[in-house]
Design brief:
coiled coil; 433 residues; 2% strand; two-stranded parallel sheet; single chain; mainly alpha
């Protein structure tokens, strides 16, 4: 460009950039702190030496005070208060100096910081709490107490200056927190990686389960369309038809018996009360015909015993043991006479027996048919696989939520790490993965 071109031309200042990994970042920052840290360690060491010197001096001054007696003055009341105060202040100051003993303190900058805060608080708070004892004692031992006060003030000044030195280098102490945060980010990164692997494994299981569900559903369709299922449907239709026939026969018997229900119920009352006597077998047949006629006819297939009971009922009506109006009497007697000629064996028992025989044969065929069991087994497999799949999807969602929370926390931590690093180094930081 030439000389004038450089003068008149505008040149954009390029921002300095450091490209590094998260693992190497602490080393770069530490190098930046090296000189400042050494200077700080040197300055704090000087202050700690002064504090240790003044602490030893304060202990010696206190021993001198303890070894000397107060000279009495004219005011006896004031003398008494001063003597008591001296004893108390000796104990109080001794306890204070023991509490803030600097012998094993200040070996690290962190401990220097902690000790400066503790020492400052102890001197300010505790000295103020027994200032009355100091005042009484100082009235009698002015020079000694003044020397001790100056020594303690010197320690307080050093603590204050230490605190100021350390506050000016707060970044150095914050760096320790940042290093911990970097370690946390690395640990969380490993955890995120583990969760990603777990999600991948669950995805494989989900795909496998979905294939299993599809396969079993296809098999179920084949079973539903297969010969076994068609035969099963046919057998079920036959079963329903036989049940209908059986119910129809029961209805026919009930309808037949309904024509003589009233005289039969009244005859049963006569027998129950002992006003008409029949043998035990007939009593059982009578009760059965009133409660479950089909079951009773199994015990009396031809209805002979029942017909003998009916003859007894006819006799009871004729003997007027069963009272009926004339018109009803004629009607009921006709119905009883019809039943006396009714062929129970052929028209009821035989038919019922045939139906039940066919039902037994049908049940055997249904047991032999495995289509229903296969279908039930396939449906159970589908149900179990779907439930497992739902649990896997729910587990995956939970892990993803946990992962997203960790990612968000890592993002915030990374922002704080980069902000601190850029402020400390005065350069733009780019973190490589």
């Amino acid at each position: 460009m030439g000389f004038l071109g450089k003068v008149f031309g505008s040149k954009e200042k390029k921002e300095e950039t450091i490209e590094t990994t998260l693992e190497l970042l602490p080393t770069i920052i530490e190098k930046n702190f090296d000189a400042r840290k050494k200077e700080l360690e040197m300055n704090t060491a000087k202050k700690m030496s002064e504090i240790k010197f003044l602490h030893i001096k304060s202990l010696k001054l206190l021993e001198d005070i303890k070894s000397k007696d107060l000279e009495e003055k004219e005011n006896q009341r004031f003398n008494k208060a001063a003597f008591t105060s001296k004893k108390q202040i000796e104990k109080q100051l001794e306890k204070l100096l023991i509490k803030m003993d600097p012998a094993d303190r200040g070996n690290t900058l962190e401990d220097v910081k902690a000790f400066s805060g503790e020492g400052n608080a102890i001197l300010v708070n505790e000295i103020m709490s027994f200032r009355k004892n100091i005042a009484y004692t100082s009235a009698y031992m002015k020079d000694e107490m003044k020397s001790l006060g100056e020594s303690l003030q010197g320690m307080l000044n050093n603590f204050t200056e230490l605190a100021k030195l350390l506050d000016n280098e707060s970044e150095m102490f914050n760096f320790e927190k940042v290093k911990e945060k970097i370690l946390d980010v690395q640990r969380v990164g490993n955890e995120i990686e583990r969760l990603n692997k777990e999600i991948d494994e669950i995805d494989i299981l989900i795909v496998s389960k979905e294939k299993e569900i599809t396969s079993v559903e296809e098999k179920k369709k084949e079973t539903q369309k297969g010969e076994g299922m068609l035969l099963l449907e046919k057998l079920e239709e036959e079963k329903a038809s036989l049940a209908s026939q059986k119910q129809k026969l029961k209805s026919e018997v009930s309808s037949l018996l309904s024509t003589i229900d009233r005289p039969l119920q009244r005859f049963n009352s006569l027998v129950s009360s002992g006003r008409w006597v029949i043998d035990k077998e007939k009593q059982e047949i009578l009760n059965g015909m009133l409660t479950n006629p089909m079951l009773a006819l199994k015990k009396d297939p031809s209805g002979e015993k029942f017909k003998e009971i009916l003859q007894e009922v006819v006799k009871a009506i004729n003997d007027e043991k069963i009272e009926l109006k004339e018109r009803e009497k004629e009607k009921r007697l006709n119905a009883l006479n019809e039943l006396l000629t009714f062929n129970f064996f052929e028209k009821v028992f035989w038919k019922l027996n045939e139906i039940q025989k066919k039902q037994s044969e049908l049940e055997a065929k249904l047991k032999e048919n495995t289509a229903q069991k296969e279908l039930a087994l396939e449906e159970n497999k589908i149900k179990h696989a779907k439930k497992t799949n739902e649990e896997l999807i729910e587990k995956k969602g939970k892990i993803k939520r946990e992962k997203n929370e960790l990612i968000e926390q890592t993002r915030k931590d990374n922002d704080e790490i980069i902000t601190f690093s850029e402020q400390t180094l005065g350069k733009k930081i780019i973190i490589k993965s």
